[in-house]
């Protein structure tokens, strides 16, 4: 079964969409990652939140979201409107426009799955609304990034919201031990003390990833999401 890129972090800054990519199988090999968080340029395909995605996980995903309420064929929804997220509309024109600006890897993944791509736009809209609610636009770093990318204000707000969530995550010694136990069969003859510092950034990124996924799921359960099923 095809699984969605859970939306949350691929801020391709010249575009308007974000994904979170993670391993399909937690037993996949683990590699060091870059923990640096920054706003990406227009050619970046990857994550922008404190090492949220491992280097080898550009296509697989972690969306285990609780299904939100679906209202079929709501009254007064015209054919060009694909979904309404609270009071924000997502139109077919908007979806096609964003899809056409996506990197080829994303286009290939979603070429036969426009409903799946729509779900990513729905998630983006939820994150954008939350960023506005938290007044991310008042932050100094938002203003600094906006000076460099004046036409990307929504992307910057969403990215800074996700960074805020990721930066709120801390890693305890027990968390690190749990992570080691999860992957120790891939580290033959390696005791915990000898590898724990190598594993620390990877354990942190996994915890950040799960925190963001949990945050998105909560937004979905609280929102009124209407889909046009015509």
Automatic annotation (TrEMBL):
Transmembrane segments: 6-22
Catalytic activity from the UniProt record: [protein]-peptidylproline (omega=180) = [protein]-peptidylproline (omega=0)
UniProt keyword terms in alphabetical order: Isomerase, Membrane, Rotamase, Signal, Transmembrane, Transmembrane helix
Top-level EC class: isomerase
InterPro entries per UniProt: PrsA_foldase (IPR050245), Trigger_fact/SurA_dom_sf (IPR027304)
Enzyme Commission identifier(s): 5.2.1.8
GO molecular function, one term: peptidyl-prolyl cis-trans isomerase activity
Protein known as: peptidylprolyl isomerase
Organism: candidate division WOR-3 bacterium
